[in-house]
Amino acid sequence: MNKRYFITAPAKLNLNLFVKNKNENGLHFLESDICFLELCDKLYINISKKDAFFQNKKTKSLIIDPNNNLILKAIDQFRLFTKWEKKFEVFLDKQIPIGAGLGGGSADAAATLIILRKIYNQETENKYIDLSSLHKIALCLGSDVPACLKSKDIKLKGYGEKVTRSKFPENYFFLLINPNVRLSTRDVFNHYKNSFNNEVHENDLYFGNIKIHNSLLLSAISLAPSISPILNSLKKAQNIVTYGMSGSGSTCFGIFENLDDIVIFLKNFNQGSDQNYFTWYGQKRDYNLNRVTYSKMLEKKY
Fold first, then answer.
1. Which residues are catalytic?
2. Which residues on adjacent β-strands are paired with residue 9?
3. β-strand 87-93 against 52-55: which pairing, if any?
4. Hey, is 264 helix, strand or coil?
5. Which residues does 31 contact at the CB level (< 8 Å), separation at least 6?
């Protein structure tokens, strides 16, 4: 029976994001401290006679744009690099909000590359894809994909190519609030470039020795004003350690020492008129490349 490979694709959280000067190619240099959360997409992939992609469609806001499917782009990029012509059937159980600054698409692409490397290294003779090569493929797919290959506490520099291991405080609880507004990273950066010469300077907020700051905050708020009241609510939360916005938005986060404080906060949190915000809470964790397992074939009800 054809094996179906299973892997989790964890959401990333940018504890900070410093936008630096541009390089000669017009890309901004970045610095960011990033951790990964228990919030995950789930991918199931098996070798097939032809390429096919399916996903859960119970929640319309989580349906991937077929013209911007990073999973399929990852498969194509892997084929281009290896000259390997295998076909694959993919099923995605999507849980990470799209366009939310949580790197869901990048996490899915990275997880896909990890599975493809495992299959390739098992099935090809005298050929082997090492982690350095996988990193090169990942960088072709986007600046967040190499970070998502690591899926551990990391520091990112450059435009995604410099990823180094780090270590952040443990045993804290993370609350995510997203107003169900999708933000395009390109739009946020373009708005930052065209409209803002000065960044917002928050109060001195820290998580351990990590400074909480986001250069894109004003740009994101101008495109998604609902970010601002969420941050104001988090600022007033009882016993909150720190708070901020992840990546290019629109997800805001709060960090707490005690889970009970999150529960109390959410009971009193006013979501706004639509009452349709995405909320999640849990902890961060480190993930390993060897987290690929085998799964029974799913019934094709998707």
1. 12, 144
2. 41
3. parallel
4. helix
5. 16, 17, 18, 20, 155, 156, 157
In this structure, which amino acid lies at residue 66? P
Quick: pLDDT tens for 117-166: 999 999 887 788 999 999 999 999 998 999 999 999 999 999 888 999 99
| DSSP 8-state symbol, 171 | S
DSSP symbols for 117-140: HHHHHHH-SS----HHHHHHHHHH
Give burial (CB, 10 Å; 0-12/13-18/19+) of 144.
buried
Q: Which two tokens stand for residue 236?
A: 């007033």
CA atoms within 13 A on the CB side of 129: 24
Q: Do residues 277 and 177 touch, judged by C-beta distance below 8 A?
A: yes
- Contact status, residue 81 vs residue 73, Cβ threshold 8 Å: no
Partner residues linked to 165 by β-bridges: 154
From its phi and psi, is residue 158 left (phi > 0), alpha (psi between -120 and 50) or beta? left
pTM over the 0.70 mark: yes
Q: Give the length of the chain.
A: 302
The CA-CA-CA angle for residues 84, 86, 88, to 5°, reads 135
Q: Residue 211 corresponds to which tokens in the numbers above?
A: 């400074």
